[in-house]
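Quick one:
INPUT:
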């Protein structure tokens, strides 16, 4: 009788090289935990003066916001955040779930692939581009004429409704993609059983697929709601920025992220305004963490088997002159109603699918129409005050910021991924993974507040002491913190795809853990890791909100990394607000260039991801 030898266990890190390699992974993991802990601690410390005077300042009980007059009521901003998010969810959830059901149950494979690609592109568009498009197209050319048609006096179309609609467009890809994934996870036997019993396709979707996928869909809605609550730039540009409470359909207003982005950098230490704004940022952070945690708990609960309660069937003994004829007539009527409902709802689901991708073509088409002809050679070589004007300094600043952020985040994220994948039983692995996932859901404006209080106007400086000021270092650190969760997750998943047989073969040949990771695992996982890095770079390339509070900008090239550093997204935001035609033209040109760069990054990522299964997996 033959016996199989047990698989070789990985050697203990006895050599100095192995211990140093493990130490690097532990250091990276501890750094991630430290960043999250520092973020909470700094925000809580800075907000404490407002928390201790919460009743006196009436931050959450008054809508009167007039810091110059001593009024710090933030209820207006809470209402704006809630109202825009509710509008976004009311629009995005039915459309997203309907599109997901269509892609999962009705669409052929080619349509499914094309739609997923278009949704990825829609999700990749920077928020400042959404805001610019919503301001110039959705509000002024869409809602404003509609308001006039219904006799509502509103000239520009800006306001809470416009902000809610652009938020709906922004979260549509998240609702659709996540709902599609959970619909695909419904066992095929459930569908086949329903169809075998004579149910129509729509009846199967409504009674079988969606109930089975409900917990995952709810989790997707929670994640999308967290994304909507924390959005800054798009809302800031289109909400109207009016600081009075108005419940009308054409009301303008403000939200927590937008008021922080506009006013925090103008505050001075020692006044209640700064801790009040940071308190609102802390509230925003807590809400998004709760949303993300609830979504993850729902996903875990949905992954476990559950009993499905069925309705009791009531049998009624009713006399009938001809039971067979009555039953046949009833069955015929039921089949007719079912067929009619199936046709109608199939059309509705296809309509939802079309409506989810239409905004992408509207945005890309309008940005191209307005901005393509504004891109000239001077745009890439001149400064804004030169003739013809250009944004050369912003392009250089963007490359500098993204390069510094990548140089900071990629090594730390990669070593953290090694810790989570190759030392998964280490005591640090579970907390680091949990914190990294939560860090990925933190709103960008909150990260900007954290870095502002840490590196721009440090909280430990004495009153009257000169702040450090805006700089490339601060902006790059904020962007790097945003990159970390994406790099960590992609690196871990890529290394987990490497077959264990390769590790076992390496250990059997006498290689150490460090040699196995460096010579076998990382080379095999490299294509997928590059994909994750490109996704992370695309994520921060169009980011604006944290740069408003960290790098800011100037009309000239930054002389050093310690000076305010301009960036392309920031100047799209700045020039879009100006009334003169020259600034608007620069904003349109910058928007077009930014969209092209981000979309090329994502298309390149998808081409690389075409080989997403790591190279070594084919040799398993």
């Amino acid at each position: 009788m033959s016996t199989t030898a047990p698989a070789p266990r990985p050697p203990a890190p006895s050599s100095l090289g192995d211990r140093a390699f493990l130490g690097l992974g532990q250091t990276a993991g501890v750094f991630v935990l430290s960043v999250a802990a520092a973020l909470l601690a700094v925000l809580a410390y800075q907000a404490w003066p407002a928390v201790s005077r919460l009743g006196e300042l009436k931050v959450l009980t008054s809508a009167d916001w007039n810091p110059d007059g001593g009024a710090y009521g933030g209820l207006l901003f809470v209402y704006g955040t809630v109202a825009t998010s509710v509008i976004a969810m009311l629009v995005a959830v039915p459309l997203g779930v309907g599109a997901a059901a269509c892609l999962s149950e009705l669409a052929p494979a080619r349509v499914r692939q094309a739609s997923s690609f278009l949704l990825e592109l829609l999700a990749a568009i920077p928020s400042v581009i959404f805001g610019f498009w919503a301001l110039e197209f959705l509000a002024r050319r869409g809602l404003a004429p509609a308001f006039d048609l219904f006799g509502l006096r509103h000239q520009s179309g800006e306001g809470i409704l416009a902000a809610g609609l652009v938020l709906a467009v922004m979260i549509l890809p998240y609702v659709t993609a996540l709902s599609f994934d959970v619909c695909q996870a419904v066992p095929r036997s459930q569908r086949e059983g329903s169809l075998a019993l004579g149910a129509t396709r729509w009846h199967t979707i409504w009674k079988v697929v969606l109930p089975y996928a409900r917990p995952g869909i709810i989790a997707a809605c929670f994640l999308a709601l967290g994304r909507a609550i924390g959005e800054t730039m798009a809302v800031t540009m289109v909400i109207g920025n009016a600081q009075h409470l108005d419940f009308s359909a054409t009301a303008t207003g403000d939200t927590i992220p937008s008021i922080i982005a506009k006013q925090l950098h103008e505050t001075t230490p020692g006044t209640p305004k700064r801790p009040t704004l940071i308190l609102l940022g802390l509230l925003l952070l807590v809400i998004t963490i709760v949303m993300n945690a609830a979504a993850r708990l729902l996903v875990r609960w949905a992954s476990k088997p559950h009993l499905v309660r069925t309705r009791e069937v009531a049998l009624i003994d009713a006399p009938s002159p001809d039971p067979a004829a009555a039953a046949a007539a009833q069955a015929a009527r039921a089949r007719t109603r079912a067929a009619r409902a199936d046709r109608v709802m199939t059309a509705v689901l296809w309509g939802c699918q079309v409506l989810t991708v239409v905004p992408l073509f509207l945005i890309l088409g309008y940005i191209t129409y307005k901005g393509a002809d504004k891109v000239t050679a001077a745009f890439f070589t001149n400064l804004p005050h030169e003739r013809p004007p250009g944004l050369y300094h912003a392009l250089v600043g963007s490359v500098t910021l993204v390069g510094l952020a990548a140089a900071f985040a990629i090594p730390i994220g990669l070593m953290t991924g090694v810790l989570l994948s190759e030392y998964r039983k280490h005591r640090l692995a579970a907390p680091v993974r949990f914190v990294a996932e939560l860090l990925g859901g933190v709103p960008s404006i909150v990260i900007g507040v954290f870095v502002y209080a840490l590196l721009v106007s440090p909280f430990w400086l004495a009153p009257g002491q000169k702040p450090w000021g805006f700089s490339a270092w601060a902006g790059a650190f904020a962007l790097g913190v945003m990159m970390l969760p994406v790099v960590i997750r992609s690196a871990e998943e890529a290394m987990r795809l490497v077959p264990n047989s390769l590790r076992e073969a390496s250990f059997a040949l006498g290689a150490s853990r460090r040699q196995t990771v460096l010579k076998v695992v990382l080379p095999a996982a490299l294509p997928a890791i590059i994909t994750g890095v490109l996704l992370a770079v695309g994520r921060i390339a169009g980011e604006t909100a944290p740069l408003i509070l960290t790098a800011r900008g100037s009309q000239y090239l930054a002389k050093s990394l310690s000076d305010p550093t301009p960036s392309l997204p920031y100047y799209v935001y700045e020039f879009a607000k100006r009334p003169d035609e020259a600034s608007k033209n620069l904003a349109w040109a910058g928007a077009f260039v930014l969209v092209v760069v981000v979309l090329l990054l994502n298309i390149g990522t998808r081409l690389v991801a075409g080989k997403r299964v790591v190279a070594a997996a084919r040799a398993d």
